[in-house]
Task: structure prediction
Amino acid sequence: MKYYMAPLEGITVHTYRNSFREFFGGIDKYFTPFIAAEGSLKMKKREIKDILPENNPDIHLVPQIISNNADNFIRFVHLISDRGYREINFNLGCPSGTVVSRHKGSGFLAEPDELDRFFDKVFNEISDVNISVKTRIGVNDENEIYRIMEIYNRYPIYELIVHPRIRADYYKGSPRMDKFRYIYDISTNPVCYNGDIRHAGDCYKITEEYKELTSIMIGRGLIRNPMLVCGIRNGNDALPDRNILRKFHDRIYNEYRETMPGERVIIYKMKEIWVYMIDLFEDDGTYIRLLKKSDGLSQYNVFVNRIFSECPFR
Ligand SMILES: Cc1cc2nc3c(=O)[nH]c(=O)nc-3n(C[C@H](O)[C@H](O)[C@H](O)COP(=O)(O)O)c2cc1C
Result:
């Protein structure tokens, strides 16, 4: 089984990925947060920095693009593949309001005919780069997946990564597993499962049920417990060593301190990680309050020192 780290905008950037690989590892592929292929034809500086091969040593990285315009998408595929990438992932899952209102991410799923034309052009013009897709199963209704699958099955999608929720679910409720079963059964392209794996047992349920699955993508569960995949591979729910988790944290924190413009930005970035990582700790509310109150580095340092020295894992 191959295990992928899901892209999480604001979190799984190169600083995080490199620290993760150094202290935990076990990940077969990392995906970048989405890069918007806009008409400007240029990538942002921060996006270029995130995919530069020298900033991703020893990492199998798949850059991800979001777009609803085939010409822009193709241009960005060339910009990125010029840096040596042989797989590019297409985002058809993002549920955020600003993205969906521009008919991108999961919003593009509402326009299946457009999507079909998009793929037709993309797969006709791109032959030297593998295009994988990360998708939800619809926008407002899970039955949209039937039409969407007709389209996906017409194209040589390198891998179809499925988060079996509709856009309207955001991250609520349970993944819609009967629809995942449908996709798994009829897809002519390789399928990867993504969604709500927090413990090794969640993963085994999927691999037992879908025996021919060859890859699983994990997002929030891995940010919460960076040892999750190592544990899954060893048949247990391993937790990180506290000292190693602290070093991992410090490596990211120090790099942000060196590269980010001000205390507030650094703390904001660290808080994005803690949204998930704090759940690893048996916190009665004390530490989350400390974290929320931190708007400068000295307060943040007190929070970090206290949680790592005082608070047990769950
Ligand atoms: C904060 C956050 C940011 C995300 N950013 C992206 C993104 O840039 N591209 C993408 O395809 N999915 C993105 N996702 C979705 C995740 O990759 C993943 O599909 C989702 O969290 C479900 O998997 P999980 O239950 O293992 O976390 C994001 C999710 C969250 C919570």
